[in-house]
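dumping this here so i dont lose it
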């Protein structure tokens, strides 16, 4: 997709919403990715945080997992206005 077309589409979507939370998330994401080109998210973690991250990465994938049916039941109310 051409960058000018993408910018126009994003601008249109932004102009059409009044959801302050959504706009704040978009702003935060753009600001982060604009400045984080050569930065690794773990660069500023302490040794303790790195150890915790490694432990979490080594946990079994199914730990703390729920089925799609359980997830849908738990989040049904989120998908209503």
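and the seq i came up w/
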């Amino acid at each position: 997709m051409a960058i000018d077309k993408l910018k126009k589409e994003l601008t249109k979507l932004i102009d059409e919403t009044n959801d302050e939370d959504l706009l704040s998330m978009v702003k935060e994401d753009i600001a982060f990715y604009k400045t984080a080109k050569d930065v690794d998210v773990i660069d500023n973690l302490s040794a303790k945080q790195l150890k915790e991250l490694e432990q979490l990465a080594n946990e079994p994938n199914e730990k703390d997992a729920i089925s799609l049916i359980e997830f849908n039941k738990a989040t049904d109310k989120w998908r209503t206005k």
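The longest helix spans residues 20-35.
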